[in-house]
Amino acid sequence: LYGEYHHLPAGLRAVEDDTVSQALPAEDGSLVGGEVSAFGWADDSYAHVFYRHAAGIAATGELTVPTDGLAPDRSVNAAREDLVAFAANHEGGLWGVAAGAYWRSWADADGDPVDFDDGQEWNAAIRPSVYPTCYLAIGFEASHQWVFLDSVHPRTLEQGTPEITKLSLLPSIQPHRGTFARPQVRLQ
Questions:
Q1: Closest C-alpha to 141, from 166, 118, 119
Q2: What's the mean pLDDT when you consider all of the chain?
Q3: Could you give the count of Cα atoms lying within 13 Å of 38 in the half-sphere of its Cβ?
Q4: How does pLDDT run across 11-42, given as a tens digit for each residue?
Q5: CA nearest 32: which of 55, 62, 9?
Q6: CA distances to 52, 80, 178 from 59, in Å
Q7: What predicted TM-score, i.e. pTM, was given to this entire model?
C-alpha cells in the first residue's frame, strides 16, 4: 500500500512582464495506491496488479503546471485520476510470454460534465517468444492502444477516439534464454 499528501500554499503568478500578478489559491491533493504480486514459480516469472487513485494537485503529475481545466477559483482541487495496471511474465524453458495492460481515467477540475479534457485510455500488449537455441529468441508482440475523450473536439466537432493496433516481429540474439536476457541484439 502507498499514500501521499500534497499541499501548495497560496501564491502570486506573474502574468505580463512581471507587472501584473494573479492570485492563485492554496492547493491540496492526495494519492493512494496498492499492488498485489505473485512471483517465483519459474525463473523470471511474476504477476503484478496495481491500483492508484489521485485527487487534487496530486492528479496533475509531479512536473505538470496546470494551465487549463481549472475550477472557477483557478484551483485544481476537484481533479482526479484513476489507474489500474497489470504486468506478468512466465518462462517455460523453450518459450516465454510477457503481458501488460492498463486503464487510466482522468478528469480536470473545471466541473464540466461533458469535457474534451476528460477521458480514459486503455493499453494492452502481449509478447510471446520462443527460444530455438540458447542464443536466439523469436518474439512477436501485439498491442492495442485506445483513448476515449468525454466530449467532441471543440474545433472538429468529432468524438475523440484515436486507437492503434501494433504487431511486431522481434528476433534477437542474446546471451541466454529468457524474456529479460540482456544484452540483446535485435534484428528490425
A1: 166
A2: 91
A3: 7
A4: 988 877 777 888 889 999 999 999 999 999 99
A5: 55
A6: 10, 5, 37
A7: 0.85
Q: Whose grid coordinates read 509531479?
A: 62
Which stretches does DSSP call E strand in the chain?
Answer: 2-8, 11-16, 20-24, 27-39, 46-56, 80-91, 95-107, 119-133, 136-149, 163-173, 185-186
Task: State the Cα–Cα distance between residues 79 and 69, nearest whole angstrom.
Answer: 9
Q: 493496433: which residue's cell?
A: 165
- Residue type at 120 in one-letter notation: Q
Confidence grade of residue 188 (pLDDT, cut at 50, 70, 90): low
Determine contact, residues 182/160, Cβ cutoff 8 Å: no
> Angle at the Cα of 95 (from 93 to 98), degrees rounded to 5?
115
Answer whether the bond into residue 183 is a cis peptide, omega within 30°: yes
C-alpha–C-alpha distance, residues 84 and 79, integer Å = 17
**Identity of residue 81:** E
Q: SS3 for 29? A: strand
Return the DSSP state at 45. Answer: -
CA neighbor of 126 nearest in space, from 149, 101, 108: 101
